[in-house]
Every structure is written in C-alpha cells, then in structure tokens.
Amino acid sequence: MLRPFISKKEVAKKESKKSRDTDTETHTEKPTCMDNLFRKFAKLVFGEKHESKKIIVKGKVVLMKKNLLDFNDLGASVLDRTHEFFGQHISIQFVSATHAVGGSSDKKLKGKLGEPAILEDWISTITPLTATESTYEVTFDWSEEMGLPGAFIVKNLHHSQFYLMTLTLDDVPGYGQVHFVCNSWVYPVENYTKNRVFFTNKAYLPDETPELLRYYREQELEILRGNGTGMLEEWDRVYDYALYNDLGDPDDKKNVRPVIGGSSEYPYPRRGRTGRKPTKSDPKTESRLFLIESYKIYVPRDERFGHLKRSDFLSYGLEAILKFLLPEFQALTDATLDEFDNFEDFMKLYNGGIKLPEGPVLETILKDIPLQVVKELIRSDGEGLSRYSIPKVIEADPLAWSTDEEFAREMVAGLNPVVIKLLKEFPPTSNLDEKLYGDQTSSIRSHHIEEHLDGLDVQEVLKANRLFILDHHDSLMPYVRRLNETSSKIYATRTLLLLQTDGTLKPIAIELSLPHPDGDHLGAINKVCTPAKDGVEAAIWKLAKTYVTVNDSGVHQLISHWLNTHACIEPFIIATNRQLSVLHPIYKLLHPHFRDTMNINASARVVLINAGGILERTFFTGPYSIEICSKIYKNWVFPNQALPKDLILRGLAVEDSDSRHGLRLLIEDYPYAVDGLEIWSAIKAWVEDYCKFYYKDDDMVQNDAELQSWWKEVREEGHGDLKDEPWWPTVSSVQDLIDNCTIIIWVSSALHAAVNFGQYPYAGYPPNRPTLTRRLIPEPNNTLEYKELEEDPQNFFLKTVTPQLQSLISVSLIEILSRHTSDEIYLGQRECPGWTMDAEPLKAFEKFGERLKEIEERIVKMNEDERLKNRYGPAKVRYTLLMPSSEEGLTGRGIPNSVSI
C-alpha cells in the first residue's frame, strides 16, 4: 500500500524554514506535528469549513523489480530492503490537470501537486526468482482541490532501478478510472537532475494539451534530447545522433575502417550516440568496448531488451562464438576441419552432430554464459554434439534446393524477394559511370537464350513482359577487384529469367563479370552461362547459380535486411523520442514499432557489422561490407520503401483500378507481393483511421509544432546525408502523415519479417545459400582445377563455397536471428490492451486486428492451392513469412511489430 510520508530530512528543513513551499521541483512538504495540533484547534473553533474535504482513492501499481536476465539479482533485492528499513522509500505524487498551483517560484503555470505517498510493502513482497510482475495496492489521501490527475512524479530512494509498468486509480471523484501506462525504468533519484514524470494514458496534440501539463510535457522532451555532450550512462534517457564511427579500430592495421556517415563519400543513416571517448590514434573514431563488455554499450534504458527477450542472448551467444568456440575450433588438428568433405557432412549438422570442443572451453562457457544462452548456442545431445533444427528447404526433399525451379522460385518467395525486376531493355545495360568503369553493358545476346523462350524471339517475350532479371552487377562491380584480392573470389552477376505459362520462373542465362585485368576503365570481362544438364557444362551452370546466390546472400544481409530495415529505421526512432511527446498521438501510433531496435542495432555494432565481426568473417564482402552498404545507401529513397511504389519501380506491378489494391502484378503468383499488399493495405487503413481521428484537416497537421519538428529532424539530422534530395516528402497534409507513417510501420514490421525470418528455413542449409566463394571457374586449358571440375564437380563445389568454420558460425547466427521470443508482440497486438483512453482509435485497432486474422486465413487457403506453384515449389516450403501471427521459436512465420531481432 501507499501512505503519506515525510522523511526526517524534510521535517528538519521545514522546521528551519518555518514556512511552507507550495511548489518545488523536488518535493511537497507534509505538515509537522505542530501544524496538526494547530489544525485540530482551528477545527474546534471554526468548524470543518476551512479545511478541504479529503477522501481515499485506491488503485494499483504494477512493476517489475530489478532482475538480471532470468536470474534474480539478490544483491539489489537486499540493498533495496535495507533502504526501505531506513526510511528510503518509493514515493508517488500526482500533478493536477485541472487545478493550478499558486506562487510557483519560476512563474510557470503548473498543475497543483497532490500529497506524496510511499510504497509501503516492498519488504514484505518477495522478489520472484524470475522477472515477473509485482502488484501493489495504492491508497491516497485525495483532496477536492486535486481535480483530475494528469501526470504523476515518482521518486525512487532505493538502491536499484525498477520497471514501472502501469498505475491505475479505480475511482477518482468526478472522473472514474484513471490509467497511466508507463513501461519505463525508474532509477534512484540521485541519477536524475529532473523528476521522473509519467502522464495519463490520453493523447493530446501540442496545442490541445491541458495548460497545466504543458510545462511537464516540454521539460520531458528537453531531458530526452540531452545536451549533446559527455559519455552517456545506463540511467540516462538521452536520444541523440552519431556517425558510424565505432566499427573500426585505428590502433590495429587489420581493423582500420572509414567513418561511415557524415560525408558525400560515405553517406549513412545516423545511429544512437553513446558519447564514448575517441581513440588515441584517430580523434574521429569512437573507442570500442571490449567484447566481454559488449552488453554495456549505451542505448536509452527503455530501449533495452526485456528480461525474457531471447534477443538479449544475441550478444552473449555471439560473444561465446567469437571468444570461446572460434579459437578452439581453429586449434583443432583435423586436417579437413575447414572443409565439408561431402554433402553428408552438412547433414550431420541436423541428423548427427558436429563434435564440440571439450574441456576448459565448455567449462568456461557454462560458467560465464547464462544457461539458456548455452542451450541456444550449443544444441547438444548430451554427448558434446552440436545439433541444429532441420531447415525447411531440405526437410521434405534434400535435393530440391539444387533445381533450377527452386533457384528461381526463391527470388519471389524466398528470404530476399525484393530485388528481382522486369527486364525492360535487351541486352541489359549499366548505370555505372563509363569514365570510371568503361562499357559495362551485358554480353548476353539473343543466341544465348532463344532456345529457352518457348519458340518466341527476344523482342516478343520482352514486349509480353515475360523477361525478368536479378541484377547484382552495378552494386558489386566497383568492389570485385578489391574483394578478389582477399580470400574471397566472386563475380558480379546478372541472371535472366523467363516467366512461364504456369506462372513459375525459369533461369535462362547467368552472366559472370570481372573487371578488366588492365584497369576498371576498360570495362568488364564477361562470361555467359546457360542451363545444362550433363558434363562439365552442367557443373559450370551449377557454379554459376552458386555465384548468383552468394551475391544475393551478401546483398540480402547487407542491404535488404540491415540497411533497409535496421539502419534506416533507427533515425526515426531517435527523432520520435526527441521531438514527439509521449502524449502525442503519432508517438503512441509509432512507438510499438520501435521496440528493441536500438538495442539490437547497438549489439550489431559490437559483434556483427564491426571490423572483424561475424559479418566480415562469414560473408564475401569482408572488410568492405559496411563501405559497400554506404555506397548503396546513396540510392535509398524514403517514398520508394512503400510496397506499391517499390513494385511499380521494379516493373513487377502496374496501376490498375480494377485490380485488388489498385495494382496488377505482372507475376500473378508472386507470394511476397500478394501477401505483402494485403498487409500493406491493412496497415494503411489502420493508420488512416487513427490519423483522421486526431487531425480533422490539413491545417492541424501544419500547425502541429512537434510534428513539424519531428519530420524536419528526421530529414536534416537522422538522414542528414540525404537531406537535400528532392524526393523528401513533406508533412503538410493529413494524407502526407498517413503515407509517411504507413511506410515507417511497414518497414519496421512486415518488410523486416519478410527478409529476416526466412533466414534459417532457407540459409540454415549452407549449400542453398552460401555466403562466400573461394575460387573462380577455371578456364578449359588443361589446368588441374579444370580437370578437378570435370572429374569431381561435387568436390570442386565444396571447396569453392563457404568452408566449415564460417558455415558453423553463420548457421549459429541465423538460427538466433530467425527465432521468435516468448515475449514477442506481433502486428495487431499491443503490450497493454488499454494503450489509449480514446475509444475510437481502440475500435479502429480492433478492426485492424480482425483484418489481419482474415489475411492469415486467406494466406492459408492460397498455400493449399496447387495451382499457385510459387507458394510451394520443389522444396515444398510454403510461403508463410507474411502470416501475421506466430508461436515462440523457429516457425518461419509471424510479423513482429518492430525490428526486434
């Protein structure tokens, strides 16, 4: 329960002042014993009329005490109880939205402060062994002068932080139930320079905010913006911008990397600022944390993973791979460890197991890494054999992945279905600067493909919109020479595909390109490969598909996944928290779609995308990974992230008012687009209902100061390297706001789901999605390599693709990335059912949820339709990545609200 409370310090202060401060930033005084005696005397003389009538108001507080992952932090629990024993409590004090305080020292209009009350039963409430909610009864002495509480101040005089979830008052006189949704960590008071304030669960536009709450609304935003200086600590609540200057190590020549962002050469979205000191060698580079300290990287505390979040295991799990398993594997003496000797070796990952190192290594892991982390990382049968789940791509048929049909199907229904385009001119051309790269026009000609065109000529199939291309040429060609000077050996690829009469795609030509040996300015040296079933030509065709898949794997991870979802969304998260109050309706709309993103991105900077990190170790892009990513970001266009616009630009759809969603797909059985348009339309309808409830006309949008500051900061700060691009939309109308918010939600939820949760189902089997190649196709001039290719194409393939060690790391990573957590929140769900007090948005959200259920039922029916061959394919993997709901685990379905893994 909560009861009125006064500390000894406050009593001493009161007696020394001999006066009452009616409004301060830190506390409200309670009457002394002498005051109470005087008041009792006054009641006898004057009666009750000079004292406001007081009543009792009850409710409940829901919070979680400080725990570490799934384990109770006993030290914190003991210290908090000690603080309670010595009178250092948790207090709550309400701020009136209807009655002003008199005599404010800073002359600012503020709501009257109610009497503080303390959380009394902390000592008697046993902290659970796992991170669970604790509920406390609340009792306040209530005065009529309080009126409607619009906010409350909470002070934590304990040793440890706690997670405050909700506060609900059951029966406020004249107002009924009042609900506060908090969902925030509250640290001890000494960590703050300003009070922690929480607002009621009602949305207000800035100029509609109750006058008495505006001071607190503005102060809260000032706190969240910070002052732009100093190293940020875990209790700081500051959202600020920084460049990607923390990926390299200038003190280590192997790990020197350029600063990404802030220049025309290396443009990039901004990331969250940590304020760590610069390195000694380069003042422009931020110092890095030791791997063992990776969990300490600063993100605002409320952006960190929840207690049960399996994503928190990402840092620990990858740390274990890098720090413990990798050196041990490398130290083993097995001469063939670095190779899969045959395809049966791959199957041991799932059916038998890879023998794990024994002895001190596993003992160290068990000692230093929480048990559930170890279970994720080391899926062991008890005999030291690491086992993995069978990826869906080989579950029904272990050979179907290698067919041309499955190779093509995955371009529209696999884990990277966002790159394929309609071919509009033949032969394919290039947009690379001819002065730098010479003539990069494709060498594919009619004679290469006409036998595969169903009796038609090239112009006929081109005119019929039946030729498509997976083009990784321009994005990679500028780096091929440098990449091939490393252990990687790649080509830049173009793949032509024919749309067949049954709706499936057939690969008909692959072009493998290398820079001219005498200089980039002399153009490309091209090799054109076409389908073959026998002899060395069949082996070369299989290798050509492999080089395409390797290209696609790198582009998928770097661009489709990391850049276009993780990196590009982070500036929106920072700007939203800096410029939109928690009271703002657009904050309430977008906030669920930002859950855990800054945390996963911070972890990625420490162990994934950093110099020498997992991505550089396992993908062909190596040390140039984020540099390549930066070059492609130059072409990022925010409005083009809208699914309908993207499909039109790639030539996969045309506007058609008679078609569903106003678009006609050129590949009718394009599962990503078909399901995606359903989800897109549902999101847009929900956003439209929501925005039109708060904004009745365009003037309201234009006059919303917070909204305009938000969008200005997204453009000029968060994506500042592209701020002068003419394509930036404005927020001048209700429709602008609907369009922009729809894109943000789509990218954060459905687009990320489509390119993330298919990773293990398809790439969990390394031959289907290799991440690197180590040699090129040998020329037929009697070399030993060419002879090996002729006589033992399987062995040549195995020695060309990702070796065993990198494969093990990659499979471990993507299994973590592809899993849903037990506390995941999916599209159409909210963390708190009563997330707003406004009834109409709640109804609209309920309608959104019902529509998503209908979409899911529709997807299930389409997946059962045998005519839709791209939804199933030779590997018999149904397209489920855009089904909205999921259970916990490795399901290959489900759309979380946010980029949370």
UniProtKB/TrEMBL annotation:
Gene3D superfamilies, sorted: 3.10.450.60, Lipoxygenase-1, Domain 2 (4.10.375.10), Lipoxygenase-1, Domain 3 (4.10.372.10), Lipoxygenase-1, Domain 5 (1.20.245.10), PLAT/LH2 domain (2.60.60.20)
Q: What CDD domains does the record point to?
A: PLAT_LH2 (cd01751)
- State the InterPro entries in the record: LipOase, LipOase_C, LipOase_C_sf, LipOase_CS, LipOase_Fe_BS, LipOase_plant, Lipoxy_PLAT/LH2, Lipoxygenase_dom_3
- What is the similarity comment for this entry? Belongs to the lipoxygenase family.
Q: Which UniProt keywords apply?
A: Dioxygenase, Fatty acid biosynthesis, Fatty acid metabolism, Iron, Lipid biosynthesis, Lipid metabolism, Metal-binding, Oxidoreductase, Oxylipin biosynthesis
Please tell me whether the keyword Iron is annotated for this protein.
yes
Q: Which PANTHER family match?
A: LIPOXYGENASE
Lipid biosynthesis in keyword set: yes
Give the protein's recorded name: Lipoxygenase
> Residue ranges of the Lipoxygenase domain?
203-901
Pfam families, sorted: Lipoxygenase, PLAT
Entry EC no(s): 1.13.11.-
Name the job this protein performs.
Plant lipoxygenase may be involved in a number of diverse aspects of plant physiology including growth and development, pest resistance, and senescence or responses to wounding.
- List compositional bias (Basic and acidic residues) regions by residue number: 7-29
Q: Which PROSITE patterns match?
A: LIPOXYGENASE_1, LIPOXYGENASE_2, LIPOXYGENASE_3, PLAT
Report the enzyme's class at the first EC level: oxidoreductase
Q: Where is this region: Disordered?
A: 1-29, 254-285
* Domain PLAT span(s) in chain numbering: 57-200
Origin species? Lactuca virosa
Q: Name one GO molecular function term.
A: oxidoreductase activity, acting on single donors with incorporation of molecular oxygen, incorporation of two atoms of oxygen
Q: Which metal ions or organic cofactors does this protein require, according to UniProt?
A: Fe cation
One of its GO biological process terms is: lipid oxidation
Q: Which pathway does the database say it acts in?
A: Lipid metabolism; oxylipin biosynthesis
Task: Give the highest taxon in the source lineage.
Answer: Eukaryota
